[in-house]
Amino acid sequence: QASYQSGTIYEWNIDGMNEYHIINKLQEMTMVSNAHKIRNNSDKAVANILIVGFTSQIKGWWDNVLTTQQQTEILEAIQVNESKEPILNNNNETIEDVVSTLIYNI
């Protein structure tokens, strides 16, 4: 069983992996993000921690395939309802959805 700690930068590399192993790697990324979120890190901060660990193909995708606008859209993602309206929390603030959006786009 894997164990992940907040404050640790993990390397993310999907080179040579088949679809099954890529999905497992994305699940690992989700588990690492949860470890960071438990420590009250913002969704955007957690996504940036994941991005720092990108290597090889996945780093090339982030650095060279996505435009600056696409990167910004991922890093500014918020939760929306079916009508594409922002979902608000109890403080009437939008809810970040950065990590899920990042992982979905990979």
From TrEMBL:
It comes from the Eukaryota. Residues 4-99 form the DUF7746 domain. InterPro entries: DUF7746 (IPR056648). Coiled coil: none annotated. This is DUF7746 domain-containing protein. Pfam families: DUF7746.
